[in-house]
Fold:
Amino acid sequence: MPLVTTTEMFKKAYDGGYAVGAFNVNNMEIVQGITEACQEQHAPVVLQVSKGARAYANHTYLVKMVEAAVKECPDVPIALHLDHGPDFETCKSCIDGGFTSVMIDCSSKPFDENVEITKKVVEYAHAHGVVVEAELGTLAGVEDDVKVSAEDSSYTHPEEVEEFVTRTGCDSLAIAIGTSHGAYKFTPEQCTRNEKGILVPPPLRFDVLEEVSKRLPGFPIVLHGSSSVPQNFVDMINAHGGKMPDAIGIPEEELRKAASMSVCKINIDSDIRLAITATIREYFDEHPDHFDPRQYLKPARQAVKDMVAHKLIHVLGCNGKA
Structure:
């Protein structure tokens, strides 16, 4: 099965009440861990590459690694997606370079400018058989080159979505309903603490999602910044020399609810980074005499695979949907 666009997988996800996982990839072990989990769970997947990943690993290496995954996992629909494309030129480069989906993120710009640039990307992408994700509303947090303060973030305005989708022709829409980039999605001041003293984040704005869904029936919605920041990984990191106090993510039950609605794609990046870092930190503590990267990257890859399998089954609900 060659690389696919997200069109068919999103249609099935919308009708089936589940979401497809969109996992950020930066190196071989991450690609392997994600796709091996998807192959075993028979789940469709979006492998997404950020501007920072392209700068780190090189566009060609990333594309070839994903192509290798397609060959090794022949039963799984795999889309290759640009995450947070900052401008037309970056999107064009990815469209020309083998991607099947791109995101143009002009959410920080005025509405009409967002429309203008998004439409230009859509016209070029559609002429080359590639689909486009756009964004309305601005998420807080930090992810690669995307840095937005809590004060500058804003929820999506449902009254704008119909005009935006109609004028741009985009194929899916990322909206802001309270998710956030990075491992520190909320400050302690934004949260409450449960009886165990664990931070509980504010709930997602499902009212915004429901209103968007009413205005765009059948249209695929995307959630960015949707890592759950599993506390077992945070605890492992802190127990082995790390310093990540009050790292907190989106509760998995809220993501599952979103997946049962109109959300067809849920982005997960920080959880992968946490799984790798926690596993390697623990390995170094337990094996201070080891120096072969294969020794510590092997369990790190397995940790990614196990975490992704959990997401596919218990959060996204897309296992068995390939």
User: Anything to note?
Assistant: The chain has one domain: 7-316.
